[in-house]
Write a structure and sequence with these properties.
about 325 residues; about 0% strand; mainly alpha; globular
């Protein structure tokens, strides 16, 4: 493993930030704790997508397919067949892995360009939404109401918003950790070489199909499991939320604003935009129609214009510039 991986794990800022997040359930009222929990859901989803979209450079718009598989299929297995939701989550993740591998194979087989791949994966997402809405086993257009959350963890019940917060925090840590592992493992170097130049990567012996499948399967499995936990937290598997391609667009937006291809970039984007959107909607939604959307959109545009590479690279550049300016320079020698 790359030494940078261990240096990141030993960074004091990482553990201080994690500790600060861990105390939130004890200080926040339920409304703001719900926003924090929702933020963690999107941190996890954006980080899972980043393995494919950021590290591998494959602009997949099919991730609502995996969220829907996790949320809708696991819920249907519980309600219609009595399958434990943990087992249902595993089965849904396996189905998502198979679908992800098929999508990666199609990309390799037909050597799809970035725009073509994005459009084809968007078509997969649209078809998946139609299938979910039209399939009665998955609840159809009405969705599925899950049993009341009584706190039985063995049944994937979290015991309210506090328990859900801990679950989503765990999933967010796993998703970010997966990014760190991939980025610092040989797989990460292979994926970045594929992202930068597929033909050159193949010429030096990097396997395109195997590495693309690995990236998509890892991302799909993580996304599916997060989708199951999200549906359980909401206690309602809503096809118009969990299987909607709009969800993928939001995930891509958060990852792009934070910084693609970086372990903490997507998390930073979600950390900024999810609370901003929820608070603006709560505070300004009834003041003037559309005002909260305007402010939200203006913020996104301003961030992208200020730093097209994302917020994290901008922050890193600012800190590296400060460190350089603070470093004393040696006096010039007299000749």
């Amino acid at each position: 493993m790359n030494p940078n991986f261990y240096r990141t794990l030993r960074a004091p800022a990482l553990w201080i930030g994690l500790l600060a997040v861990a105390v939130l359930p004890f200080v926040l009222p339920n409304y703001y704790l719900h926003i924090a929990t929702l933020t963690l859901v999107y941190i996890a989803l954006a980080s899972a997508w980043n393995i494919v979209g950021g590290v591998a450079g494959q602009l997949s718009l099919a991730h609502s397919l995996f969220v829907g598989a996790g949320g809708m299929l696991a819920s249907a297995l519980l309600l219609k067949l009595g399958v434990n939701m943990w087992l249902g989550a595993i089965l849904a993740a396996a189905a998502s892995a198979a679908l992800g591998a098929i999508i990666a194979w199609l990309d390799f087989r037909f050597r799809l360009g970035h725009l073509t791949f994005a459009l084809i994966t968007l078509a997969f997402a649209e078809m998946a939404e139609i299938v979910v809405i039209g399939w009665e086993f998955l609840g159809g257009a009405s969705g599925l109401f899950l049993p009341k959350d009584t706190g039985q963890f063995s049944q994937m019940q979290f015991g309210g918003v506090q328990g859900a917060f801990w679950m989503m925090l765990s999933l967010a840590v796993v998703a970010i950790g997966a990014n760190l592992v991939v980025l610092n493992a040989p797989l990460g170097y292979y994926l970045r070489s594929i992202r930068d130049n597929e033909n050159a990567a193949q010429a030096i012996g990097v396997g395109l199909l195997g590495n693309k499948i690995k990236a998509m399967v890892i991302s799909a499995v993580l996304t599916s499991f997060i989708g199951t936990a999200y549906a359980r937290y909401l206690t309602f598997a809503d096809p118009y939320l969990l299987a909607s391609p709009v969800l993928t667009i939001e995930i891509v937006l958060f990852a792009t604003v934070g910084g693609l291809g970086r372990a903490f970039g997507p998390a930073l984007g979600a950390l900024l935009l999810v609370p901003l959107g929820e608070v603006l909607r709560g505070k300004l939604g009834g003041v003037l129609p559309g005002l909260h959307y305007f402010i939200y959109g203006a913020t996104v545009v301003a961030v992208i214009m200020l730093s097209p590479r994302g917020l994290l690279p901008l922050i890193q550049d600012l800190f590296s510039g400060k460190r350089k300016s603070a470093t004393p320079t040696a006096p010039a020698k007299a000749h």
